[in-house]
Design goal:
4-stranded antiparallel beta sheet, alpha/beta, single chain, 5-stranded parallel beta sheet, Isoleucyl-tRNA Synthetase, Domain 1, 3 domains, about 575 residues, Rossmann fold
Length: about 575
Amino acid sequence: MYLLEQITKKLAKEVNEALNLDLVNASDFVYPPNPEMGDLSLACFAIAKSSKQSPNELAQFLVGKIKSTGLIRGVQAVGPYCNISLNKSLFCQKLMTEIAKNKDQYGKNTSGKKARVMIEYSNGNTHKEYHVGHLRNISYGDSVYRLLAANGYEAIPVSYINDFGIHVAKTLWWLTHPNNPDNINRVKPDELENKGYFLGQTYAAASAVLGDNEDKKIEVGEYMHQIESRQGEIYDLWQQTRQWSIDQFACVYQELGVQFVDTFYESDYIDEGLKIAGELYAKHFLVKSQGAVIADLSEYSLNVLMFLRTDGTALYPVADLPLAMAKFKKYKLKKSIYVVDIRQGLYFKQLFKVLELLGYKEEMMHLGYEFVKLPEGMMSSRTGNVVSYEDLKDKTIERARISTAEKHRDWSTEKVEKVARAIAFGAIKFEMLKVSREKPITFDVETSLRFDGYTAAYLQYTCARIASMERKAADIKFDAKGADLDHPKEHALALKLARYPEVIQQAGDNYEPSELAKYLFELAQLVNDYYHDVPVLKADPELAKSRLELLSATKQIIANGFNLLGIEIIDEM
């Protein structure tokens, strides 16, 4: 139990004992908007009804019942609110001790084992380009996984790769087409710098050539049948090119610091799914409609879910159904979470309903997120109107490299490169995480690369500045005890640090890394304002020691928070 929770639980107990009622919880104590009102506040509206007093009378009554000892410095009534002030120096001292003791574990709410939860994200498509839109999925999914683990869940991160859809047939159709100047017989795969990127370009070109031409779509359907038959030249080509995409995904995951416990592939579940679809059709659970095989969910206001097209080729639920069943069986899950963009909201409601009707009672959740747009409009792999992952990465690293080299002309090339990459990947991820999942992101490359404002680089620079102070302090002889910290800005900073554990809990409960990102930014603003106005190393040695410890605690919290966002801090930049 962390410091603030200890305080609020003690306060709740004292209030309940004074009222001889069990009405108040630790969570009922909130933070006043104005520091002059105190550090914690209890609104007396609801509990006044049970105590048969007015809210104002109850607040006055509680002033005499809450003890002003230890960490509690004073209590006052302001209208219907009972406001509590903390002992600034003692609170700061205890908090810094708590953070120093727990280090990178500080803030985690892992007391008591919670449910086993699987979170599926990075549902990439082979044979398509990996672009900036995918970055929101993987950054968000990875951070939610980290938040769940930090809140005590047995969280299992997995990836599901769509390697068997109609998009694959489109790509291979154009890749082997005689009219394609980049036909597989005209290019040398081993000479391609990025085979995954090449496949993405081929898919976009195929979509443009196909248009609404029904004859060509029939040809693509034949390719799909050949792939599903698992034999012949087209199937062999599918195997070869599929690996190109898988290798590219592995490189992306490594660069982003993302790891999965398991990776599922659509192709591994198609055959089982077709078998299940046949069985469900025989039982009249699935029916035919205009030649297609569907689940009629209209009585649940969910329209119809198509399993098989009129030509017999499979759609998403054919593989998704047996995959969901396999997850529950293999991992004994209490909850299965799918991170997929908001456009698939209806589909997942349909899929979950089918599973429910088949007897699965486990909790299933779709975590949808809004689009990533370019300043000029929506992105689409089909049209080729995307910012590719490779282009974005290269541009970001190059800009960070130039900026870092200019600031540190004495640094080695290796050191410049290491810092530049940390800045670049931090910037990319933070842009994907600082916005609530319910809001679209307009991804502007130039804005994302800024090194000031609401950016990862601003937070990284804050940590680097504190690290610089720590290095300078190595030559200072400090007083062993240190001094009490009671400056108003020190107290405001300490209160912000103490709220970190509850931010982690709220961000996890809401599946919202943006709440953590906002907190870290506000914390960085506070600490930058603090060491701008309050001398640290130039203070008396005993005071400098305590102030440096407060800054080190702040750096630890930013590092902890960044870890949950999947971002690296930097000691020099």
